[in-house]
Specification:
The chain has one helix and 15 strands; from the N terminus they run E-E-E-E-E-E-E-E-E-E-E-E-E-E-E-H. It is mostly beta strands. Strand 8 and strand 9 form a beta hairpin. The N terminus is likely disordered.
Length: 206
């Protein structure tokens, strides 16, 4: 099972995943834990197949991903910040699946469109210059009619977590707009939030 990018071969031990996981994110090696519900194995590694939190069984050496519980539908709030997973990217827009609201409220998941003109980078000509499938983004809701639209205009909005499109390893930000994979050395460009790499609860709590 794959999620739009190649997975790395787990040749060396990495730290276990903690906090929020999204599909395709590395959890552990198969030598450390075997995959159960919400996870899968690929090329010697264990990866998340759901949005949720990892649960480790250190006795039987299994890991599962506990998905977020879906709450009852709520009224959408224009101007509110939401966290979403980029599910698809086209030339002029990206599709974002929203799964978290500011203050860590969990709305019923819904889809929204991010148009390239609302990506927060004036020189961007295509949405692929802003985001990639599998990216976790913080966006602002700018319409309350279908199709719902979101924006990444503002320094606090943008990508907050991303994986390497070459090997699937985590990308780190060197604060010049470039993301680097320490596993394979590949460098990528996104519209990055100033909160890149921070835990979601700390982003919304300041």
């Amino acid at each position: 099972m794959r999620y739009g990018f190649a997975m790395p071969r787990a040749k060396k031990k990495r730290s276990l995943a903690k906090g929020l996981l999204v599909p395709g994110f590395y959890i552990s090696t198969i030598e450390e834990f075997s995959a159960k519900s919400g996870a899968y194995e690929d090329n010697g590694g264990v990866y998340s197949s759901k949005v949720g939190l990892p649960e480790y069984d250190k006795i039987d050496h299994y890991v599962s991903v506990k998905p977020f519980k879906v709450s009852a539908p709520e009224r959408l709030v224009l101007g509110a910040s939401y966290v979403g997973l980029v599910s698809d990217v086209h030339k002029n827009f990206a599709q974002v699946t929203i799964f978290l609201k500011d203050q860590l409220e969990r709305p019923s998941p819904f889809s929204a469109l991010l148009h390239v003109s609302r990506g927060g980078v004036r020189r961007a000509r295509t949405a692929t210059e802003l985001v990639k499938p599998g990216d976790v983004v913080v966006v602002k809701l700018i319409t309350d009619w279908v199709p719902l639209q979101v924006s990444m205009e503002g320094s606090e909005l943008g990508v907050v977590r991303a994986s390497c499109s070459k090997c699937g390893g985590p990308l780190t930000w060197d604060h010049d707009g470039v993301l680097k994979c320490h596993a394979c050395g590949h460098r990528e460009i996104r519209k990055v939030s100033v909160d890149y790499g921070r835990k979601l609860h700390s982003i919304f709590s300041g």
